[in-house]
Amino acid sequence: MAQIYISLGSNVDKEHYIRQALIALKALLIEFDHSSVFESEAVGFAGNNFYNSVIGAQTQIPLPQLCQLLKQIERENGRTNNDKKFSPRTLDLDLLFYDDVVCDSPAQLPRDEITKNAFVLQPLAEIAPDFYHPTAKQTIAQLWNTYNNPKQKLWKVEFTNP
Q: Based on the number of CB atoms within 10 Å of its own CB, is 148 exposed (0-12), middle (13-18) or buried (19 or more)?
């Protein structure tokens, strides 16, 4: 069993698409844990605010297949291959960790934005404070406690899990 963490993000009908992602992921994964949902301003472009959260789970799905399944869930929820990197999106599912695997393909692991964006790091710290980041050589709690980017503000929103 691999311990995985996935970030979820949406800024188009965001409550609906976060809920749809959770339903799809719960059907695929084992020992599911979901952080609070946070709202934040768009980073890198002007757009609607995002909802972001992180799930932790266990899986027997091999890494390449899991990456394909995440893309499939995105497509089933209105995401297209033509979407620009910094643009509005119905659903963004990013694999953050797959155990302690470090690689660039089929996904960048650990995901670079973990240490750069509060909207990933804060919900991750909420559900996985003791998880050890294999390249930063610190726990997620340590990374969050030393994180300093006052430009990135986020706040918890009320959200009922499906």
A: exposed
16's CB contacts (< 8 A; 6+ apart) are none
∠ CA 133-54-16, rounded to 5°: 160
Helices (H) and strands (E) in the chain, counts: 4, 8
pLDDT, tens only, 90-147: 999 999 999 999 999 999 999 999 999 999 999 999 999 999 999 999 999 999 999 9
**137 within 8 A of 150, measured Cβ to Cβ:** no
If we measure between CA atoms, which residue out of 115, 103, 82, 81 comes closest to residue 7? 115
Which DSSP state fits 137?
T
pTM: 0.94
Distance set, CA 145 to CA 4, 121, 140 (Å): 22, 10, 9
61-74 burial, b if ≥16 CB within 10 A, otherwise e?
A: bebeebbebbeebb
Amino acid, res. 79? R
